[in-house]
Task: structure prediction
Amino acid sequence: MIEIEIHATDGAARAGVVRTHRGTFETPVFMPVGTRGAVKHLTSRDLDELGIEIQLANTYHLMLRPGADVIAALGGIHRFEGWDGHVLTDSGGFQVFSLSPKVDDDGVTFKSTYDGSSHRLTPERAVEVQGLIGADIQMVIDVCAPLPSSSRELRVAVDRTAAWAARAKHAPKPEHQALFGIVQGGTDVELRRESAARTVELDFDGNAIGGLAIGEDREAMFETTAWAADVLPREKPRYFMGIGDPEGILEVIERGVDMFDCVLPTRVARTGSALTWEGRLNLRNARFARDARPLDEACGCPACTRFSRAYLRHLVNQQEILGLRLLSLHNLRFLIDLTAGARAAIERGELAGYKSAALARLGAAAPTA
Result:
């Protein structure tokens, strides 16, 4: 159904290839987020031309609009989007829990953010919905406790996540779909390791580290990632849910993570900002008004090969959609290239040097204001 072949290691870091019924994708891999079945401002052809092999779609939003049954009737998410690459769907758990739903041992009841209608999501229903959507990889629904949380709240989250994972594991789904478990436990080392062990025992196709990057101390987040990854099996993919800044990507790769996603590159593009080796550039700033340079001389994206910073600033300040589209293309290209560089460094046994040099360049960056 799904397997990972590790081609090289450098400390805990891994470089490999994940094989699925659909094909393969190289790891470590950054997955752009197509929340409602589209990466903001981009087409499926754009994703192909960027070299993206896997993207994430959001179960919560798609089950509400247009509806999982509609997507299924139209041939599944790949035909619906017109894209042949891999799709991973999250369970919708994070979005549901951000809406303060009614939670019990059986599942959650929440109101639609679109029209206020009431909906019920159980572990079995989450698997069913993702099966209808037609993802290549689906996620179990988990309990994402806010941080900081009390020990009692974290204990409830770990126990419910484990119980729901066991139910999801036995729920019927299309045979070709992979199912990943999720590790919770906050930044509590014992709870996190316990959750990892209970998740591994269920023998999912892959395992995710959840409940982080939600406001906790960054160093604690990276330490927790190392604790969890150390317990997760070598022969299965490891996925950190929700990280996409350059430093964070390098840190989790170094700790043995294979897959990661985030809305950051397209979200900051919509604010008029570009991710570069000079740091994050706010193109609304007047200092770019006559700047004839590309965002990055070495970048091969459409924004950098054809347009100046001055022109991109003009588009952003005039609220032209083209500006947001070009910045989205560039920011994704930047993170894809950063990740590819890390993969090549692992294969050479030089990840520490690559990471150090990358962080030094970013740390010496010009002000973003």
